[in-house]
Design a protein that fits this description.
By secondary structure, this protein is an alpha/beta fold. The protein folds into two domains: 142 residues, HUPs (Rossmann fold), CATH 3.40.50.620; 156 residues, Rossmann fold (3-Layer(aba) Sandwich). The protein is built from nine helices and twelve strands. Strands 3-2-1-4-5-12-11-6-7-10 form a ten-stranded mixed beta sheet, with helices on both faces. A two-stranded antiparallel sheet has the order 8-9. A hairpin with a 2-residue loop joins strand 8 and strand 9. It is elongated and about 70 Å long. It starts with a strand and ends with a helix.
């Protein structure tokens, strides 16, 4: 699933925060890492500097292995690099698609001292355009020297909404958790109120206690089914159901349990609480503090869900 991992870099230390995550994943999954740098043009006069920079990053990844991984984990991985010319986001998305990249790992808010393109905006554009799974590491407040700790990627918070689209992230979590031996927590947020759009404008109501208990039981049974599926892959998981606003609840709960990764799909929609994962993912990305794994739902799943919703 993750045979090839792509890491976009821009020459900044903040962008390099993504490297330990890619390194950890590559070592436990047996993946190949490709570092990508996008320059202004093919005849960029700093081309040799970009090459030197990427070579240096390759050596840094190898040195990180010697410092932070034991002999069993310290496997030899293949790392290469590529320099392209053009718009950073467009070239990253195009390259990932052409090379069948299994996962893009990148940081936000990095800025290059050589060419000065904001990784924050590039990550945002890549998130909207790529079909590949995308792991986004927030650079805000992070310290590169602390990212080699063994606790990296040890606790995965999976947000679900009850839809088949939302479950698209599950195979990815199974793969990661089984190889990383990570703890998995399933989270479903239930809105305590509902909106009705009438001719006079939106009207708001609060679920009765009996309705809320019925919804909780429905969600609990649903999450138990997911847990049973994960256990078949020898992944130990537990579930949490919380009342609240989706994005805010996800962010706060991730901080509360000290999650090392939040995993979610985009464009899922719940039949219970009716919140769009696409919108929630953007809010969690912008306001959250935890690395985020985003998996885009396939057109096949989307089509099936739309047909079942209309039936």
């Amino acid at each position: 699933m993750y045979e090839k991992i792509l890491v976009p870099l821009d020459g900044s230390e903040l962008a390099q925060i993504a490297l330990p995550y890619a390194d950890k994943l590559a070592r436990v999954l047996g993946s190949q890492i490709t570092l990508i740098y996008v320059s202004e043009s093919a005849d960029d006069r700093y081309h040799h500097m970009h090459q030197f920079y990427l070579q240096q990053m390759v050596e840094n990844v190898k040195q990180n292995s010697e410092r932070h991984f034991d002999n069993q984990e310290r496997k030899t991985i293949k790392i290469d690099s590529v320099i392209l010319a053009g718009d950073p986001a467009e070239e990253i998305v195009k390259y990932a698609g052409q090379e069948d990249i299994g996962l893009i790992v990148m940081s936000t808010h990095g800025r290059s001292g050589i060419r000065r393109w904001a990784m924050g905006s590039v990550a945002d554009k890549v998130m909207r355009a790529t079909k590949q799974p995308l792991a986004i590491v927030r650079a805000k407040g992070a310290r590169p020297d602390m990212l080699g700790e063994r606790s990296i990627l040890s606790k995965i918070l999976v947000t679900l909404d009850g839809s088949k689209e939302g479950e698209a992230v599950i195979p990815h979590v199974e793969e990661l958790a089984s190889k990383l031996q990570a703890e998995v927590i399933l989270l479903q947020v239930i809105a305590p109120d509902y909106h009705i759009y009438a001719s006079g404008g939106p009207e708001y109501g609060v679920y009765a206690e009996q309705q809320m208990e019925s919804m909780k039981k429905f969600v609990r049974d649903y999450l138990d089914e997911i847990i049973a599926r994960l256990e078949q892959r020898e992944v130990i998981a537990k579930a949490e159901i919380i009342l609240g606003t989706a994005a805010e609840t996800i962010i706060n709960f991730a901080d509360q349990i000290n999650a090392s990764l939040v995993a979610m799909t985009t464009h899922g929609r719940s039949g219970v609480s009716r919140w769009a994962i696409g919108s929630v993912a953007e809010r969690v990305l912008r306001a959250g503090n935890t690395p985020l794994l985003l998996v885009r739902t396939s057109e096949t799943i989307t089509g099936q869900y739309q047909e079942s919703s209309l039936a």
